[in-house]
Specification:
single chain; 533 residues; alpha/beta; Rossmann fold; 20 helices; binds 2-acetamido-2-deoxy-beta-D-glucopyranose; UDP-glycosyltransferase; UDP-glucuronosyltransferase; EC 2.4.1.17; signal
Length: 533
Protein backbone atom coordinates (compact mmCIF):
# COMPACT_ATOMS: atom_id res chain seq x y z
CA UNK A 1 0.00 0.00 0.00
CA UNK A 2 2.72 2.38 1.07
CA UNK A 3 4.70 1.41 -1.95
CA UNK A 4 1.73 2.14 -4.16
CA UNK A 5 1.16 5.52 -2.52
CA UNK A 6 4.77 6.44 -2.92
CA UNK A 7 4.74 5.39 -6.55
CA UNK A 8 1.71 7.51 -7.28
CA UNK A 9 3.30 10.44 -5.43
CA UNK A 10 6.34 9.89 -7.58
CA UNK A 11 4.14 9.94 -10.65
CA UNK A 12 2.56 13.17 -9.51
CA UNK A 13 5.95 14.66 -8.75
CA UNK A 14 7.15 13.64 -12.17
CA UNK A 15 4.10 15.22 -13.75
CA UNK A 16 4.55 18.47 -11.83
CA UNK A 17 8.21 18.42 -12.68
CA UNK A 18 7.44 17.90 -16.34
CA UNK A 19 4.87 20.65 -16.42
CA UNK A 20 7.31 22.98 -14.66
CA UNK A 21 10.06 21.99 -17.07
CA UNK A 22 8.07 22.45 -20.21
CA UNK A 23 6.48 25.56 -18.73
CA UNK A 24 3.26 27.17 -19.80
CA UNK A 25 2.59 26.24 -23.42
CA UNK A 26 -0.60 28.17 -23.47
CA UNK A 27 -1.22 31.76 -23.99
CA UNK A 28 1.86 33.41 -25.30
CA UNK A 29 1.69 36.89 -26.73
CA UNK A 30 2.91 37.15 -30.31
CA UNK A 31 3.61 40.25 -32.36
CA UNK A 32 3.69 39.94 -36.16
CA UNK A 33 5.63 42.22 -38.48
CA UNK A 34 3.66 42.68 -41.72
CA UNK A 35 4.58 41.47 -45.17
CA UNK A 36 2.76 41.42 -48.51
CA UNK A 37 1.45 39.06 -51.16
CA UNK A 38 1.69 35.31 -50.93
CA UNK A 39 4.16 35.78 -48.06
CA UNK A 40 1.33 37.13 -46.00
CA UNK A 41 -1.02 34.24 -46.87
CA UNK A 42 1.56 31.90 -45.35
CA UNK A 43 2.09 33.90 -42.18
CA UNK A 44 -1.69 34.06 -41.82
CA UNK A 45 -1.90 30.27 -41.58
CA UNK A 46 0.60 30.28 -38.73
CA UNK A 47 -1.32 33.08 -37.00
CA UNK A 48 -4.60 31.13 -37.19
CA UNK A 49 -2.98 28.05 -35.68
CA UNK A 50 -1.39 30.10 -32.89
CA UNK A 51 -4.78 31.59 -32.06
CA UNK A 52 -6.41 28.15 -32.18
CA UNK A 53 -3.92 27.05 -29.55
CA UNK A 54 -4.85 29.92 -27.25
CA UNK A 55 -2.08 32.40 -27.97
CA UNK A 56 -2.90 35.99 -28.57
CA UNK A 57 -1.61 37.56 -31.77
CA UNK A 58 -1.19 41.20 -32.68
CA UNK A 59 -0.37 42.26 -36.24
CA UNK A 60 1.45 45.51 -36.92
CA UNK A 61 0.07 46.85 -40.17
CA UNK A 62 0.61 50.00 -42.21
CA UNK A 63 -2.39 51.95 -43.47
CA UNK A 64 -1.14 51.30 -47.04
CA UNK A 65 -1.05 47.50 -46.78
CA UNK A 66 -2.41 45.69 -49.84
CA UNK A 67 -3.08 42.28 -48.36
CA UNK A 68 -3.72 42.80 -44.66
CA UNK A 69 -7.20 44.01 -43.85
CA UNK A 70 -7.51 45.04 -40.23
CA UNK A 71 -10.97 43.87 -39.20
CA UNK A 72 -12.42 44.48 -35.78
CA UNK A 73 -14.12 41.06 -35.69
CA UNK A 74 -10.90 39.15 -36.52
CA UNK A 75 -9.39 36.85 -33.92
CA UNK A 76 -6.06 38.68 -34.10
CA UNK A 77 -5.59 42.27 -32.98
CA UNK A 78 -4.20 44.96 -35.26
CA UNK A 79 -1.95 47.90 -34.50
CA UNK A 80 -2.23 50.23 -37.47
CA UNK A 81 0.55 52.72 -38.15
CA UNK A 82 0.54 55.45 -40.80
CA UNK A 83 3.03 55.55 -43.63
CA UNK A 84 3.49 58.56 -45.89
CA UNK A 85 2.80 56.67 -49.12
CA UNK A 86 -0.28 55.28 -50.85
CA UNK A 87 -1.37 51.75 -51.70
CA UNK A 88 -0.76 52.33 -55.40
CA UNK A 89 2.90 53.12 -54.69
CA UNK A 90 3.36 49.48 -53.66
CA UNK A 91 1.07 48.25 -56.44
CA UNK A 92 3.04 50.12 -59.09
CA UNK A 93 6.31 48.82 -57.74
CA UNK A 94 5.06 45.22 -57.84
CA UNK A 95 3.82 45.79 -61.40
CA UNK A 96 7.22 47.17 -62.39
CA UNK A 97 8.98 44.15 -60.93
CA UNK A 98 6.65 41.75 -62.76
CA UNK A 99 7.10 43.70 -66.00
CA UNK A 100 10.89 43.64 -65.63
CA UNK A 101 10.82 39.87 -65.44
CA UNK A 102 8.32 39.40 -68.25
CA UNK A 103 10.11 41.73 -70.65
CA UNK A 104 13.72 40.91 -69.76
CA UNK A 105 13.91 37.32 -68.69
CA UNK A 106 17.59 37.02 -67.76
CA UNK A 107 19.72 35.11 -70.26
CA UNK A 108 23.49 34.76 -70.28
CA UNK A 109 23.76 37.99 -72.24
CA UNK A 110 21.20 40.09 -70.39
CA UNK A 111 22.13 38.81 -66.94
CA UNK A 112 23.95 41.90 -65.89
CA UNK A 113 21.40 44.36 -67.27
CA UNK A 114 18.61 42.45 -65.57
CA UNK A 115 20.24 42.45 -62.16
CA UNK A 116 21.10 46.13 -62.47
CA UNK A 117 17.42 46.93 -63.10
CA UNK A 118 16.31 44.58 -60.35
CA UNK A 119 18.79 46.27 -58.02
CA UNK A 120 17.16 49.64 -58.81
CA UNK A 121 13.66 48.33 -58.11
CA UNK A 122 14.71 46.67 -54.88
CA UNK A 123 16.24 49.98 -53.89
CA UNK A 124 12.80 51.58 -54.31
CA UNK A 125 11.30 48.77 -52.25
CA UNK A 126 13.84 49.43 -49.53
CA UNK A 127 12.98 53.11 -49.49
CA UNK A 128 9.34 52.24 -48.81
CA UNK A 129 10.48 49.67 -46.27
CA UNK A 130 12.57 52.34 -44.50
CA UNK A 131 9.54 54.63 -44.29
CA UNK A 132 7.64 51.75 -42.67
CA UNK A 133 10.43 51.29 -40.12
CA UNK A 134 10.46 54.99 -39.36
CA UNK A 135 6.70 55.05 -38.97
CA UNK A 136 6.97 52.47 -36.17
CA UNK A 137 10.33 53.11 -34.55
CA UNK A 138 10.04 56.90 -34.33
CA UNK A 139 6.46 56.72 -33.08
CA UNK A 140 7.21 56.99 -29.35
CA UNK A 141 3.59 56.47 -28.37
CA UNK A 142 3.26 53.27 -30.40
CA UNK A 143 6.60 51.91 -29.19
CA UNK A 144 5.69 52.60 -25.56
CA UNK A 145 2.37 50.86 -26.09
CA UNK A 146 4.08 47.85 -27.70
CA UNK A 147 6.65 47.73 -24.92
CA UNK A 148 3.86 47.74 -22.35
CA UNK A 149 2.02 44.89 -24.06
CA UNK A 150 4.57 42.31 -22.94
CA UNK A 151 5.16 40.32 -26.12
CA UNK A 152 6.92 36.97 -25.91
CA UNK A 153 7.93 36.73 -29.56
CA UNK A 154 7.96 38.58 -32.84
CA UNK A 155 7.30 36.77 -36.13
CA UNK A 156 8.64 38.32 -39.32
CA UNK A 157 9.30 37.63 -42.99
CA UNK A 158 12.72 39.17 -43.72
CA UNK A 159 11.64 40.25 -47.21
CA UNK A 160 10.14 43.19 -45.31
CA UNK A 161 13.03 44.33 -43.15
CA UNK A 162 12.90 45.91 -39.71
CA UNK A 163 10.84 43.31 -37.81
CA UNK A 164 14.16 42.23 -36.31
CA UNK A 165 14.96 45.79 -35.28
CA UNK A 166 11.56 46.28 -33.64
CA UNK A 167 12.07 42.97 -31.79
CA UNK A 168 15.45 44.13 -30.49
CA UNK A 169 14.02 47.48 -29.37
CA UNK A 170 11.27 45.62 -27.50
CA UNK A 171 13.78 43.06 -26.14
CA UNK A 172 11.71 40.19 -27.58
CA UNK A 173 13.13 37.10 -29.36
CA UNK A 174 12.18 36.85 -33.02
CA UNK A 175 11.54 34.07 -35.53
CA UNK A 176 11.79 34.38 -39.30
CA UNK A 177 9.43 32.77 -41.79
CA UNK A 178 10.64 32.94 -45.38
CA UNK A 179 10.79 31.26 -48.76
CA UNK A 180 14.21 32.61 -49.68
CA UNK A 181 16.19 35.78 -50.09
CA UNK A 182 17.86 36.32 -53.48
CA UNK A 183 20.79 33.86 -53.79
CA UNK A 184 19.95 33.10 -50.13
CA UNK A 185 22.14 36.11 -49.38
CA UNK A 186 20.46 36.68 -46.03
CA UNK A 187 20.37 33.01 -45.03
CA UNK A 188 24.01 32.45 -45.97
CA UNK A 189 25.60 35.63 -44.72
CA UNK A 190 23.36 36.45 -41.77
CA UNK A 191 21.95 33.03 -40.85
CA UNK A 192 25.24 31.24 -41.64
CA UNK A 193 23.59 28.36 -43.50
CA UNK A 194 26.19 26.61 -45.69
CA UNK A 195 25.47 26.52 -49.44
CA UNK A 196 28.19 24.66 -51.37
CA UNK A 197 27.85 26.10 -54.89
CA UNK A 198 28.86 22.78 -56.44
CA UNK A 199 25.45 21.26 -55.74
CA UNK A 200 23.27 23.95 -54.11
CA UNK A 201 21.73 25.97 -56.93
CA UNK A 202 21.54 29.73 -56.36
CA UNK A 203 18.06 31.21 -56.17
CA UNK A 204 16.84 32.68 -59.49
CA UNK A 205 19.42 30.59 -61.39
CA UNK A 206 16.85 27.95 -62.53
CA UNK A 207 19.50 25.30 -61.96
CA UNK A 208 19.10 21.93 -60.24
CA UNK A 209 21.44 20.06 -57.90
CA UNK A 210 23.00 18.17 -60.85
CA UNK A 211 25.10 20.75 -62.65
CA UNK A 212 27.46 20.44 -65.58
CA UNK A 213 30.75 22.32 -65.55
CA UNK A 214 29.26 25.34 -67.34
CA UNK A 215 26.22 25.31 -65.06
CA UNK A 216 28.49 25.38 -62.04
CA UNK A 217 30.17 28.44 -63.53
CA UNK A 218 26.73 30.01 -63.93
CA UNK A 219 25.88 29.05 -60.36
CA UNK A 220 28.97 30.62 -58.79
CA UNK A 221 28.55 33.75 -60.90
CA UNK A 222 24.86 33.91 -59.84
CA UNK A 223 25.76 33.73 -56.16
CA UNK A 224 28.33 36.48 -56.39
CA UNK A 225 26.35 38.70 -58.73
CA UNK A 226 23.26 38.52 -56.54
CA UNK A 227 25.32 39.07 -53.41
CA UNK A 228 26.77 42.15 -55.05
CA UNK A 229 23.41 43.50 -56.24
CA UNK A 230 21.38 42.75 -53.13
CA UNK A 231 24.05 43.73 -50.62
CA UNK A 232 24.61 47.08 -52.29
CA UNK A 233 21.91 48.68 -50.15
CA UNK A 234 23.01 47.03 -46.92
CA UNK A 235 25.40 49.90 -46.16
CA UNK A 236 22.51 52.35 -45.76
CA UNK A 237 20.69 49.90 -43.53
CA UNK A 238 23.83 49.41 -41.42
CA UNK A 239 23.86 53.15 -40.72
CA UNK A 240 20.12 53.10 -39.96
CA UNK A 241 20.32 50.08 -37.66
CA UNK A 242 23.32 51.55 -35.82
CA UNK A 243 21.45 54.83 -35.34
CA UNK A 244 18.31 53.14 -34.00
CA UNK A 245 20.19 50.76 -31.68
CA UNK A 246 22.64 53.44 -30.56
CA UNK A 247 25.73 51.31 -31.15
CA UNK A 248 27.72 50.30 -34.19
CA UNK A 249 26.04 47.27 -35.73
CA UNK A 250 25.03 45.94 -39.13
CA UNK A 251 21.82 44.82 -40.76
CA UNK A 252 23.24 41.34 -41.14
CA UNK A 253 24.37 41.03 -37.53
CA UNK A 254 20.87 42.02 -36.39
CA UNK A 255 19.12 39.62 -38.79
CA UNK A 256 21.50 36.88 -37.66
CA UNK A 257 19.93 37.10 -34.21
CA UNK A 258 16.81 35.28 -35.43
CA UNK A 259 16.21 32.34 -33.09
CA UNK A 260 14.63 30.08 -35.71
CA UNK A 261 14.41 30.30 -39.50
CA UNK A 262 11.22 28.68 -40.77
CA UNK A 263 11.92 28.01 -44.46
CA UNK A 264 8.80 27.47 -46.56
CA UNK A 265 10.09 24.46 -48.53
CA UNK A 266 10.68 20.80 -47.74
CA UNK A 267 12.57 17.85 -49.22
CA UNK A 268 9.67 16.94 -51.52
CA UNK A 269 10.40 20.14 -53.43
CA UNK A 270 13.87 21.21 -52.30
CA UNK A 271 17.07 19.50 -53.39
CA UNK A 272 18.96 17.92 -50.47
CA UNK A 273 21.43 20.44 -49.03
CA UNK A 274 23.24 21.13 -45.76
CA UNK A 275 21.39 23.14 -43.12
CA UNK A 276 21.70 24.20 -39.49
CA UNK A 277 19.73 23.08 -36.44
CA UNK A 278 17.95 26.44 -36.19
CA UNK A 279 16.65 26.11 -39.77
CA UNK A 280 13.36 24.24 -40.01
CA UNK A 281 11.87 23.36 -43.40
CA UNK A 282 8.11 23.73 -43.18
CA UNK A 283 7.00 23.93 -46.82
CA UNK A 284 3.30 23.37 -47.41
CA UNK A 285 2.22 24.40 -43.92
CA UNK A 286 -0.85 26.10 -45.38
CA UNK A 287 -2.10 22.98 -47.19
CA UNK A 288 -5.24 21.26 -45.99
CA UNK A 289 -7.55 18.47 -47.09
CA UNK A 290 -10.01 19.78 -49.67
CA UNK A 291 -13.33 21.16 -48.44
CA UNK A 292 -16.50 20.86 -50.54
CA UNK A 293 -16.76 23.34 -53.39
CA UNK A 294 -19.51 25.95 -53.69
CA UNK A 295 -22.59 24.32 -55.26
CA UNK A 296 -22.42 26.03 -58.66
CA UNK A 297 -18.73 25.21 -58.99
CA UNK A 298 -19.23 21.59 -57.97
CA UNK A 299 -21.93 21.21 -60.64
CA UNK A 300 -19.61 22.61 -63.28
CA UNK A 301 -16.80 20.27 -62.17
CA UNK A 302 -19.14 17.26 -62.19
CA UNK A 303 -20.34 18.16 -65.72
CA UNK A 304 -16.82 17.39 -67.00
CA UNK A 305 -17.49 13.65 -66.86
CA UNK A 306 -14.55 11.28 -67.37
CA UNK A 307 -12.23 13.98 -68.77
CA UNK A 308 -12.10 15.87 -65.50
CA UNK A 309 -11.08 19.48 -64.99
CA UNK A 310 -8.03 21.69 -65.34
CA UNK A 311 -7.41 24.46 -62.81
CA UNK A 312 -5.70 27.62 -64.03
CA UNK A 313 -4.35 30.53 -62.00
CA UNK A 314 -1.59 33.05 -62.50
CA UNK A 315 -1.65 34.10 -58.87
CA UNK A 316 -2.68 37.08 -56.83
CA UNK A 317 -0.11 39.52 -58.24
CA UNK A 318 -0.99 39.42 -61.95
CA UNK A 319 -4.22 41.35 -62.30
CA UNK A 320 -4.78 41.42 -66.06
CA UNK A 321 -3.24 40.36 -69.33
CA UNK A 322 -3.14 41.99 -72.76
CA UNK A 323 -6.12 41.13 -75.02
CA UNK A 324 -3.79 39.21 -77.29
CA UNK A 325 -2.39 37.07 -74.50
CA UNK A 326 -5.71 36.33 -72.89
CA UNK A 327 -7.10 35.21 -76.28
CA UNK A 328 -4.11 32.95 -76.93
CA UNK A 329 -4.79 31.32 -73.59
CA UNK A 330 -8.57 31.17 -74.02
CA UNK A 331 -8.26 29.59 -77.47
CA UNK A 332 -5.94 26.92 -76.08
CA UNK A 333 -8.23 26.17 -73.17
CA UNK A 334 -11.22 25.87 -75.52
CA UNK A 335 -9.44 23.02 -77.35
CA UNK A 336 -9.10 20.87 -74.26
CA UNK A 337 -11.54 18.02 -73.67
CA UNK A 338 -11.50 18.95 -69.97
CA UNK A 339 -13.57 21.66 -68.29
CA UNK A 340 -11.38 24.57 -67.17
CA UNK A 341 -11.70 26.82 -64.12
CA UNK A 342 -9.65 29.95 -64.72
CA UNK A 343 -8.96 32.49 -62.03
CA UNK A 344 -8.93 35.70 -64.03
CA UNK A 345 -10.06 39.17 -63.06
CA UNK A 346 -9.46 40.98 -66.36
CA UNK A 347 -11.73 41.51 -69.38
CA UNK A 348 -13.36 38.31 -70.67
CA UNK A 349 -11.48 37.20 -73.82
CA UNK A 350 -13.62 36.74 -76.99
CA UNK A 351 -12.09 33.32 -77.68
CA UNK A 352 -13.31 31.94 -74.35
CA UNK A 353 -14.65 28.43 -74.99
CA UNK A 354 -17.84 26.96 -73.56
CA UNK A 355 -15.73 24.55 -71.49
CA UNK A 356 -14.00 27.42 -69.65
CA UNK A 357 -15.28 29.56 -66.82
CA UNK A 358 -13.43 32.53 -65.35
CA UNK A 359 -13.62 33.45 -61.69
CA UNK A 360 -12.34 36.46 -59.74
CA UNK A 361 -11.22 34.05 -57.08
CA UNK A 362 -11.16 30.26 -56.79
CA UNK A 363 -10.86 27.99 -53.74
CA UNK A 364 -7.60 26.72 -55.20
CA UNK A 365 -6.72 24.18 -52.51
CA UNK A 366 -10.21 22.66 -52.57
CA UNK A 367 -10.16 22.47 -56.36
CA UNK A 368 -6.73 20.84 -56.48
CA UNK A 369 -7.94 18.32 -53.92
CA UNK A 370 -10.99 17.45 -56.02
CA UNK A 371 -10.91 13.89 -57.39
CA UNK A 372 -11.79 15.12 -60.91
CA UNK A 373 -8.87 17.55 -61.15
CA UNK A 374 -6.31 16.38 -63.74
CA UNK A 375 -3.82 19.22 -64.04
CA UNK A 376 -2.93 22.65 -62.67
CA UNK A 377 -1.74 25.47 -64.94
CA UNK A 378 0.16 27.80 -62.64
CA UNK A 379 2.57 30.73 -62.53
CA UNK A 380 4.54 28.63 -60.06
CA UNK A 381 4.21 30.51 -56.79
CA UNK A 382 5.38 28.42 -53.84
CA UNK A 383 1.93 28.29 -52.25
CA UNK A 384 0.23 26.91 -55.36
CA UNK A 385 3.05 24.45 -56.00
CA UNK A 386 2.70 23.11 -52.49
CA UNK A 387 -1.04 22.70 -52.86
CA UNK A 388 -0.35 20.67 -56.04
CA UNK A 389 2.27 18.57 -54.22
CA UNK A 390 -0.09 18.02 -51.32
CA UNK A 391 -2.84 16.73 -53.60
CA UNK A 392 -0.52 15.05 -56.16
CA UNK A 393 -1.51 17.10 -59.22
CA UNK A 394 0.86 17.47 -62.23
CA UNK A 395 1.70 21.00 -63.34
CA UNK A 396 1.99 23.14 -66.42
CA UNK A 397 4.19 26.01 -65.26
CA UNK A 398 4.07 29.48 -66.84
CA UNK A 399 6.52 31.24 -64.53
CA UNK A 400 6.43 35.02 -64.48
CA UNK A 401 8.71 36.50 -61.84
CA UNK A 402 10.71 36.11 -58.63
CA UNK A 403 11.19 32.50 -57.48
CA UNK A 404 8.61 31.15 -59.96
CA UNK A 405 11.12 30.06 -62.62
CA UNK A 406 13.11 28.30 -59.93
CA UNK A 407 10.05 26.61 -58.52
CA UNK A 408 9.05 25.25 -61.90
CA UNK A 409 12.66 24.17 -62.56
CA UNK A 410 12.46 22.14 -59.32
CA UNK A 411 9.17 20.52 -60.29
CA UNK A 412 10.45 19.79 -63.78
CA UNK A 413 13.55 18.13 -62.36
CA UNK A 414 11.25 15.97 -60.23
CA UNK A 415 9.27 15.02 -63.33
CA UNK A 416 5.98 16.55 -62.25
CA UNK A 417 5.81 19.62 -64.51
CA UNK A 418 6.11 20.96 -68.04
CA UNK A 419 7.27 24.55 -68.46
CA UNK A 420 6.06 27.18 -70.92
CA UNK A 421 7.48 30.61 -71.64
CA UNK A 422 4.87 33.27 -71.01
CA UNK A 423 6.39 35.66 -73.56
CA UNK A 424 6.57 33.31 -76.56
CA UNK A 425 3.79 30.87 -75.69
CA UNK A 426 1.45 29.98 -78.60
CA UNK A 427 -1.98 28.41 -78.44
CA UNK A 428 -0.65 24.99 -79.56
CA UNK A 429 2.11 25.09 -76.94
CA UNK A 430 -0.40 25.38 -74.14
CA UNK A 431 -2.68 22.69 -75.61
CA UNK A 432 0.29 20.32 -76.04
CA UNK A 433 1.61 20.99 -72.55
CA UNK A 434 -1.72 20.28 -70.87
CA UNK A 435 -2.26 17.15 -72.98
CA UNK A 436 1.25 15.94 -72.15
CA UNK A 437 0.92 16.17 -68.37
CA UNK A 438 -2.50 14.51 -68.56
CA UNK A 439 -1.86 11.81 -71.22
CA UNK A 440 1.67 10.84 -70.17
CA UNK A 441 1.15 9.09 -66.84
CA UNK A 442 4.73 9.71 -65.66
CA UNK A 443 3.79 13.25 -64.59
CA UNK A 444 0.89 12.10 -62.46
CA UNK A 445 2.99 9.28 -60.97
CA UNK A 446 5.77 11.70 -60.02
CA UNK A 447 3.27 14.16 -58.56
CA UNK A 448 1.78 11.35 -56.46
CA UNK A 449 5.27 10.26 -55.35
CA UNK A 450 6.02 13.80 -54.11
CA UNK A 451 2.63 13.88 -52.43
CA UNK A 452 3.39 10.65 -50.56
CA UNK A 453 6.74 12.03 -49.39
CA UNK A 454 5.03 15.21 -48.28
CA UNK A 455 2.41 13.39 -46.24
CA UNK A 456 4.86 10.93 -44.68
CA UNK A 457 6.33 13.19 -41.99
CA UNK A 458 6.37 12.57 -38.23
CA UNK A 459 4.78 15.98 -37.58
CA UNK A 460 2.94 18.17 -40.06
CA UNK A 461 4.79 21.28 -41.28
CA UNK A 462 2.33 23.58 -39.54
CA UNK A 463 2.72 21.75 -36.22
CA UNK A 464 6.49 21.92 -36.58
CA UNK A 465 6.41 25.65 -37.31
CA UNK A 466 4.16 26.31 -34.33
CA UNK A 467 6.20 23.97 -32.13
CA UNK A 468 9.34 26.05 -32.72
CA UNK A 469 7.49 29.30 -32.15
CA UNK A 470 6.18 27.95 -28.84
CA UNK A 471 9.63 26.58 -28.04
CA UNK A 472 11.15 30.03 -28.42
CA UNK A 473 8.44 31.49 -26.19
CA UNK A 474 8.97 28.82 -23.50
CA UNK A 475 12.74 29.15 -23.46
CA UNK A 476 12.99 32.83 -24.37
CA UNK A 477 15.04 31.90 -27.41
CA UNK A 478 16.79 28.90 -28.94
CA UNK A 479 20.39 29.86 -28.27
CA UNK A 480 21.49 26.23 -27.97
CA UNK A 481 20.86 25.84 -31.73
CA UNK A 482 22.91 28.86 -32.67
CA UNK A 483 26.16 27.97 -34.47
CA UNK A 484 29.35 29.62 -33.23
CA UNK A 485 29.89 30.76 -36.83
CA UNK A 486 28.13 33.97 -35.77
CA UNK A 487 31.18 34.92 -33.67
CA UNK A 488 33.72 34.45 -36.46
CA UNK A 489 34.98 36.87 -39.06
CA UNK A 490 34.80 35.70 -42.68
CA UNK A 491 38.47 34.73 -42.78
CA UNK A 492 38.17 32.82 -39.50
CA UNK A 493 35.04 31.06 -40.82
CA UNK A 494 36.97 29.77 -43.85
CA UNK A 495 40.07 29.21 -41.65
CA UNK A 496 42.03 31.48 -43.96
CA UNK A 497 44.08 32.76 -41.01
CA UNK A 498 45.02 29.19 -40.07
CA UNK A 499 45.79 28.33 -43.68
CA UNK A 500 47.90 31.46 -44.01
CA UNK A 501 49.78 30.54 -40.82
CA UNK A 502 50.35 26.94 -41.92
CA UNK A 503 51.38 28.08 -45.35
CA UNK A 504 53.85 30.56 -43.86
CA UNK A 505 55.28 27.83 -41.58
CA UNK A 506 55.63 25.50 -44.53
CA UNK A 507 57.22 28.25 -46.62
CA UNK A 508 59.71 29.06 -43.85
CA UNK A 509 60.56 25.37 -43.43
CA UNK A 510 61.11 24.97 -47.16
CA UNK A 511 63.17 28.15 -47.23
CA UNK A 512 65.39 26.92 -44.37
CA UNK A 513 65.71 23.50 -45.97
CA UNK A 514 66.73 24.98 -49.31
CA UNK A 515 69.22 27.32 -47.63
CA UNK A 516 70.73 24.41 -45.68
CA UNK A 517 71.01 22.31 -48.82
CA UNK A 518 72.65 25.12 -50.73
CA UNK A 519 75.04 25.74 -47.83
CA UNK A 520 75.97 22.04 -47.61
CA UNK A 521 76.36 21.72 -51.37
CA UNK A 522 78.59 24.75 -51.55
CA UNK A 523 80.70 23.52 -48.61
CA UNK A 524 81.08 20.08 -50.15
CA UNK A 525 81.94 21.71 -53.43
CA UNK A 526 84.61 23.80 -51.76
CA UNK A 527 86.10 20.74 -49.99
CA UNK A 528 86.14 18.78 -53.25
CA UNK A 529 87.77 21.74 -54.99
CA UNK A 530 90.41 22.00 -52.28
CA UNK A 531 91.09 18.22 -52.53
CA UNK A 532 91.59 18.54 -56.28
CA UNK A 533 94.02 21.35 -55.76
C1 LIG B 1 -1.77 56.82 -44.15
O1 LIG B 1 -1.72 57.87 -43.22
C2 LIG B 1 -0.89 58.97 -43.61
C3 LIG B 1 -0.84 59.97 -42.46
O2 LIG B 1 -2.07 60.15 -41.87
C4 LIG B 1 -1.44 59.60 -44.87
O3 LIG B 1 -0.60 60.65 -45.29
C5 LIG B 1 -1.49 58.52 -45.94
O4 LIG B 1 -2.08 59.04 -47.10
C6 LIG B 1 -2.29 57.33 -45.46
N1 LIG B 1 -2.20 56.30 -46.46
C7 LIG B 1 -3.27 55.64 -46.88
C8 LIG B 1 -3.05 54.63 -47.93
O5 LIG B 1 -4.37 55.80 -46.41
C1 LIG C 1 -4.29 46.28 -66.72
O1 LIG C 1 -5.41 47.08 -66.47
C2 LIG C 1 -5.14 48.44 -66.32
C3 LIG C 1 -6.43 49.16 -66.01
O2 LIG C 1 -7.38 48.32 -65.51
C4 LIG C 1 -4.50 48.98 -67.59
O3 LIG C 1 -4.16 50.34 -67.42
C5 LIG C 1 -3.25 48.19 -67.91
O4 LIG C 1 -2.72 48.60 -69.14
C6 LIG C 1 -3.59 46.73 -67.99
N1 LIG C 1 -2.39 45.96 -68.18
C7 LIG C 1 -2.25 45.11 -69.17
C8 LIG C 1 -0.95 44.36 -69.22
O5 LIG C 1 -3.12 44.90 -69.97
C1 LIG D 1 -4.08 13.31 -75.28
O1 LIG D 1 -5.43 13.13 -74.95
C2 LIG D 1 -6.33 13.95 -75.64
C3 LIG D 1 -7.66 13.64 -75.14
O2 LIG D 1 -7.67 13.51 -73.78
C4 LIG D 1 -6.22 13.72 -77.14
O3 LIG D 1 -7.07 14.60 -77.81
C5 LIG D 1 -4.80 13.91 -77.57
O4 LIG D 1 -4.65 13.57 -78.94
C6 LIG D 1 -3.87 13.07 -76.75
N1 LIG D 1 -2.51 13.38 -77.12
C7 LIG D 1 -1.59 12.45 -77.24
C8 LIG D 1 -0.24 12.93 -77.65
O5 LIG D 1 -1.80 11.28 -77.03
C1 LIG E 1 6.42 10.63 -70.81
O1 LIG E 1 7.27 11.69 -70.36
C2 LIG E 1 8.56 11.27 -69.97
C3 LIG E 1 9.27 12.46 -69.38
O2 LIG E 1 9.25 13.55 -70.26
C4 LIG E 1 9.28 10.67 -71.18
O3 LIG E 1 10.56 10.23 -70.80
C5 LIG E 1 8.45 9.52 -71.73
O4 LIG E 1 9.06 9.03 -72.90
C6 LIG E 1 7.04 9.95 -72.03
N1 LIG E 1 6.22 8.81 -72.39
C7 LIG E 1 5.48 8.77 -73.47
C8 LIG E 1 4.69 7.54 -73.68
O5 LIG E 1 5.44 9.71 -74.24
Amino acid sequence: MAAKASSSTKCLQLLVFQVALVGPVCCGNVLVWPTEGSHWLNVQTVIRELIRRGHSVTVLVSNASLFIQPKAEAAERFEVFNVPFQKDTIENLIEEIVALWLNNRPTTLTFWQFYKELGKLSKSWHQLNRQMCDAVLTNQELMAHLRGSGYDLLLSDPVTLCGDLVALKLAVPFVYSLRFSPASTVERHCGKIPAPPSYTPAALSELTDRMSFSERIKNIVSYHLQDYVFQSYWGEWDVYYSKILGRPTTLCETMGKAEIWLIRTYWDFEFPRPFLPNFEFVGGLHCQPAKPLPKEMEEFVQSSGEHGVVVFSLGSMVYNLTDEKSNVIARALSQLPQKVLWRYKGKKPEALGSNTRTYDWIPQNDLLGHPLTKAFITHGGTNGIYEAIYHGIPLVGIPMFADQHDNIAHMRAKGAAVELDFGTMKTEDLVDAVNTVINNSSYKENALRLSKIHHDQPITPLDRAVFWIEFVMRHKGAKHLRPAAHHLTWYQYHCLDVLAFLFTCAAIAVFILVKCCLFCCRKRGRIAKRKKE
